[in-house]
Amino acid sequence: MTFPLLTYPLDIIKTNRILQTSLAKEGAESIPKEFLALYEKGGLKTGLYRGFLIGFIAASVQGPFSENPQTGTIAALGVSVATNPLNILQVHKQNFHNSQTKTYTQIMSDVGVNRMFTLGLIPSVARNFLILAGLIPSLLGNTNNLITFGYALGGIVLSHPFEVARVIIQHKGASAGMFGNTL
Length: 183
Description:
single chain, mainly alpha, globular
């Protein structure tokens, strides 16, 4: 539980940098300045940890995958689809476009209940697949730390463009078609 508490403000900063919000401009691409701006805008609850509850629920649902790589991959796909609405809610809560924040009901109303399961789903599944691929040596029992580290780093690096696409589509695609602009 401690690790997510420490890293969640960095996730808010990442989301706001991707969306080029006022927070990213205020912080001038300096993480310490962005932490300070985040805290000044809303303290702990509506600043550093805005949207944390929904992110915590999504992370809890995603949890550990099966030991078998084949069933783990199928489970990852199902979990990606099931947690997509939670990811959309989190992206909208993390966004700093002004001092106001939307309620979960307002976000669902803006996005639409059906689109909560489809908006940004393609980049989300691709990102999750690449991250899971980075875990392959560990899942197969490989104990060589260099190989495990290389796969994990590769999974993170290759998945980042899909994370950027997911955030942009889930936030700005709220007025686009059923899948945003991914098809």
